[in-house]
Specification:
Low-confidence stretches: none
Order of helices and strands: HEHHEHHEHHE
Oligomer: single chain
Number of helices: 7
Largest sheet: 2 strands, antiparallel
Shape: elongated
Strand order of the largest sheet: 1-2
Structural class: mainly alpha
Strand content: 5-15%
Mean pLDDT: 88
Number of strands: 4
Amino acid sequence: DHASSSEIKEAFDLFDTEKRGYIDYHELKVAMRALGFDVKKPELVKIIQEYDRNESERIEYADFLEIMTQKYLERDPEEEILKAFQLFDDDGTNKISLKNLRRVARELGENLTDDELQAMIDEFDTDEDGTRRVV
């Protein structure tokens, strides 16, 4: 599932502070990162060459919407799940333990008890070892 056009517009507007209807290259890179796409320079150059047809050194909203819609369509759901899993599995065990879940809950400002966190793990703990393994 990909972001709605309102989320894409929100990211664009965050950088188009003067409501000009366009953002510059640096703002493009940061806006894409805000939407979860860490774009390397060669890819950014390619995007700019494709969309900045009049060489104005800016990307207009309609182009940004098209770029981001395409980026979302190209995402691999399994790769996204693995990336999310790795955010939890900071100790590299290929499992999410109570300790991992506690850390993430704390980072997100969620005030959950160990019992509540363990209940989340138990719900998906297929081999009953007290952890959730990556698929």
